[in-house]
Here is the input.
Amino acid sequence: MLKSALCFSRHERAYTQLQNFGKKITAVAVAGISLGAGFGLGQGVFNKTATGHGAPAWAAAASLRTADEQSTIRVARGVSPAVVTVLSKGGLGSGVILDGNKGIILTNAHVIRDDEGNAATRVNIRLNTTKELPGRVIYTDRNVDMAVIQVNATGLPQAQIGDSDTLEVGQSAIAIGNPLGLEQTVTTGVVSAVNRRLSPNDVDGFIQTDAAINPGNSGGPLLDSNGRVIGINTAVLRGNGAEGLGLAVPINLARDVVDQILTTGTVKRVSIGVRFGSVTPATAARFNLPVKSGVVLDSVVEGSAADRAGLQQGDILTALDGKPLEQGGDLLKALRAKRPGETVQLRFVRGNATRTTSVRLSEATSN
Here is the structure.
């Protein structure tokens, strides 16, 4: 699991005690907003009456927003109905509705666990309409910090799913969740890194973002600028005053888990036991590499499938079963389609020589 990350399971319980306080804050904020809106309306009507023409001032304000602001507003309005609050003995967290007709909701495994690490089998789901529904936990995996919940409801709003394998560092990222019990909070930032691995045994690398993620955000969606879910927010790294180091589970991994649960009732994932990065034309030129794309192995776990197949640190993988591997996402996507016990053929470059090896895939541990 995320041993070096600050997961929120032990902290979120405390924040449930702030809900009543949060409601008071919300009530005050609503009153303030109402007062402000009334004042703006009065000014707009006054301006229109005085001049006899033109749009009210409050309506004209929308035209002053930048394209980026308008895009974020559209995303927030469009996705918020699919963002839920997850209530369990472990405290309060967020979730996102993946399938509104089957009542499938994604969240984090640590959201539904108590302080002793025991996973709940039943939770309550609060929709953004404030209606609460009982939910049944149908899958949990602490290694990837993900849980799947099902509610007995149909026709729920659902989020649109993106493609986390195609993410680019620097693209926009938007998080929606319930930090400190303040529901439907929106924060923005960028994708700071992809394939961020905290352990050599991580099946997929995490998405790193500087969009603010706080206790209560766990389990909520990380979105691209079109409002598509690209990840499930899971933790934040803190230390030495560092800020803006949030992590999210890639949505492609989450979607694969849900598909397996709904079709077979179980989840089996593979691991080859490597840390890796992507080769780009820039890095190839800088380090005088023999190829301009591929997956470079940063490390190989001793005794792992990759180690048994003879792979070494510095090897550059260029193809799996004959299909090109141009960057790390290609390897992740290819491995997700495989199952434990299968054998794949890897082509790789070592030095200036191109080689091939067979790798018998092992099963990634889940608990």
The helical segments are 9-16, 19-51, 57-60, 67-79, 251-264, 281-286, 305-308, 328-336. The domain at 1-262 is CATH 2.40.10.120 (Thrombin, subunit H).
